[in-house]
Design a protein that fits this description.
Aminopeptidase; five-stranded mixed β-sheet; 5 helices; alpha+beta; globular; 157 residues
Length: 157
């Protein structure tokens, strides 16, 4: 079962985020606090949104999709940028990831959005194979850039 996240999901969402960071070899980079995540998802001006996958038999939350809107100046409409998709290892292979992505694709179609996109680590071959099986195409002609830390402060100065 896929459902929209509610405020009571913040602790399990943080657990899933920490598990994802650990899976990607960067546990120290997951720094969001409960207050920060709650504000981003449920504050007066939500900047992000989340859906959770709940195991039908146990009622346990086993996965999440955390996303936000982007905007295409070329298409003239919003799209969905998937920040995090994660399904706990024991729950993989049961359709939760596909159901989460299907939910977001349905939201895009329903709202007239033209894109559902995300990044994936080059080394995450199981995820890449899964995404390709859904018809996703890599954007090989694009390079991701980021400014953070001291470089961000210098740029702002």
């Amino acid at each position: 079962m896929i459902r929209t996240a509610v405020p009571d999901d913040v602790p399990v969402l943080l657990d899933l985020i920490a598990e994802l960071a650990d899976y990607e070899g960067a546990p120290h980079e997951a720094k969001a606090t409960p207050a920060q995540l709650h504000e981003a998802l449920f504050g007066p001006y939500p900047a992000a949104f989340a859906h959770v996958a709940v195991d039908d038999q146990t009622g346990e939350t086993v996965g999440m999709a955390l996303w936000f809107l982007n905007y295409s100046t070329w298409d003239g409409v919003h799209g969905v940028y998937l920040e995090d998709l994660y399904v706990r290892p024991a729950a993989r292979g049961h359709g939760h990831g596909r159901a989460l992505l299907r939910t977001l694709a349905g939201l895009c179609v329903e709202r007239g959005y033209t894109r559902l996109q995300w990044w994936v680590l080059d080394a995450n071959e199981p995820a890449i194979a899964f995404y390709r099986s859904l018809g996703a195409k890599p954007m090989d002609a694009w390079t991701v850039f980021r400014v953070s830390g001291d470089a961000l402060a210098e740029l702002a100065d």
